[in-house]
Please model this.
Amino acid sequence: MPLPILAMMLCTFSIGTAESVIAGILPRIADDLGVSLSAAGLLVSVYAAVVVVVGPLMTLATGRLARKPLLLGMLALFTLGNVIAALAAPAGSYALLVTGRLVSAFAHSTVFAICLTSAGELAPPGQRASAGARITLGFGLAMVLGVPLGTFVGQHYGWSATFWTITAMSLACLALLARCFPSGPQRPTAGGGGSTLAELRVLARPRVLRAIAITVFCSAGVFTAFTYAVPLLTDVSGFGEQAVTALLLLYGAGGVAGNALGGKAADRSLVPSLAVILAAVTGALLLLAAVASLPWLTAGALLLLGLAYFGTVPGLNTIIVTSAEVGSPTLALSVNSSAFNIGIAAGGLLGGAAVQSGAGLRAAPVVGAAVVALGLALCAYELKARRPARVLAASPSGKD
Model:
């Protein structure tokens, strides 16, 4: 793996860990700072809200800057946010912790989008999706390794130590990227010298809008089920708490494998492979609902879900980049990062509504499958929309 891509993968690993680890140390934060669990839970919502709203604006505002100093600057801002969060523990300040989370979230989307765009440009011809998959693999590894490690550190050494650990990882990434990230002429991060209005027009392109919508439907459908995966596994499948931890690791391991396979599939056949994987996500959710009372089949369904869901990520990001090729791919990727977070939030609400409707915990994956199916329908439309262009390009006369 080229060193710059490895460095950017470690960068997204740090960001993914910082975003998600808060859930594992939430009770300790609430106890130490003397706030309610729901108030501590706002640390998750605040971070996600900033990523959704501020992330694309930050990317647009910094779009004229050279890519390497911008990436290093944003990563330094992310590191500063984690330092502030770490200092909140000895200060006993909830406000300081919220401030640290806000500062980190400001950099989230821009760093992620720059890394994805740069990886595609550094990759050999025909390997753009695979290179992007290595970047998004950082987020998958954050779920599998980063969050359990950060939770372990927080439980044994205090949650301040968790943020100091993330700070150390971020500083290591900063040093590595300063050394190996290309500093020569590159495409601008947002737009190529055009007006801000021209950059924003990229987001109005039908293909970009369809890709963003597919992202929302896919992540919303999966998180409709995943938000309630733990009670489903314990109350319906009958697993104990220790087994649930192992099952979530199994889901994450499936995600790591799916991310790599999805990248290779997208390189070979972008939209058709994405349609097949979305169909697999829909089937995995329905299977999870059908076999929830059969423990080992449930474990298999969870593995398949992780494999399929993370397999969609490289294809979705590659569609965004190719659709916004002449314009602002970094801005579009930043918006797509927000779309994932919108889907996650919507999925939690849909799952809650499904469970509280009286239909039971099995209803969550069924509703989730219906939502992903909407994304599959959009993907099928995208496949149909692209076919005439391929036929025209293949015809010597320019006619079918």
About this structure: The domain at 192-400 is CATH 1.20.1250.20 (Growth Hormone; Chain: A;).
